[in-house]
Amino acid sequence: xxxxxxxxxxxxxxxxxxxxxxxxxxxxxxxxxxxxxxxxxxxxxxxxxxxxxxxxxxxxxxxxxxxxxxxxxxxxxxxxxxxxxxxxxxxxxxxxxxxxxxxxxxxxxxxxxxxxxxxxxxxxxxxxxxxxxxxxxxxxxxxxxxxxxxxxxxxxxxxxxxxxxxxxxxxxxxx
Length: 175
Known about the structure:
Elements: E1 12-13, E2 16-25, E3 29-36, E4 41-45, H1 46-50, H2 59-72, H3 80-93, H4 98-105, H5 118-136, E5 142-145, E6 157-160, H6 162-168
Antiparallel strand pairs: 1-2, 2-3, 3-4, 5-6
């Protein structure tokens, strides 16, 4: 014997308010017409509403995706500034590369913990990067450690031209 349909008209489930019974489906339950807080009407199974499987007409999921994209995307991942940050981080963490290991990792050259996330590096270095490229061009701008024996930190880094960088080079074996 089929269970009677419990009237849930007027009930609220997350962003959905149940308006009226849409249809009874034999052996499957009832579907309800609901109105989302955004104004869109949608049809939902009663079990979806009661179990929290359906929270909105779909607008909630779109908002979550949009927030995640906003959080994850800084819009600079294809820029030279981002590539400089990525390469800096890689030099100090990729121990399988013999040159990185010899000239950075084995010497204790690290990236400060704060700069392991791009957003923090951007916060500290982006405006002065823009100023530097305006004066010297993007191609002629790279990150420079003021003291070559210390790691990458806000206090020990600046933007420098290729000419300045060449003056900073350590004497390497074979050079």
